[in-house]
Amino acid sequence: MNDNTFEVTDLRQWAYCPRVVYYQYCLPDIRPMTKLMLAGMEEHRSEVGREERRSLRTYGLKQGERFFDVPLRSETLGLRGRVDLVIAIPDRQRATEVIVVEYKSTEGKAGPHVKLQLCAYALMIEETWRIPVKRGFIYHMPERKAEAITISASLRDRVRATIEAMRVTVDCERMPAPPASRAQCTVCEFRRFCNDVV
Length: 198
Ligand code: SF4
What we know:
Helices cover about 35% and strands about 20% of the residues. It contains five helices and six strands. The protein has helices spanning about 10-15, 20-25, 35-55, 110-130, 155-170, and strands spanning about 5, 65-75, 80-90, 95-105, 135-140, 145-150. Helix 1 (about 10-15) packs across helix 2 and helix 1 runs antiparallel to helix 4. The model has no long low-confidence stretch (mean pLDDT about 90). Bound molecules: iron/sulfur cluster. Iron/sulfur cluster binds next to helix 2. Iron/sulfur cluster (SF4) binds next to helix 2.
């Protein structure tokens, strides 16, 4: 690792398949950039413009100050990343609560991997801004709906445990086992490196 921190998105990747994180850090030059990934990045950028025109009622709020694409870094957690949206209630100066929002291009309820990523941003905002984050939202772009997520104690514990597991894997350069279900292997950009599964 060039840096002593993981990207927040690595938590999501780890939940998808730990091997993806292993490849990323132990064999950093092999990652191909697929058309799907590039399209996803572009869709994310466009969503910021739409968010600026969207009402806070989307999140059940009457007031709040919005901050877009906020860079975050925590040496304590060993994480870095950019959260799509932070809402300070009622504003940054007087905030008693902060809400984190992530945009997702997928339909349906947020999976555990997405919640892990959102919670990591919540922990980083708490540390940096020193304001409690009790909840967040996943904004599903295709359905134009916000799904509320509680930043619970168990979710916070899972974030810390996942960071620790990633750290051990990368420090020991030990390739993790593949996921129990191989369904995702068929669409994975690393499949040509996993000769044991495909
Ligand atoms: S091909 Fe399967 S085992 Fe290999 S990195 Fe992708 S998801 Fe993981």
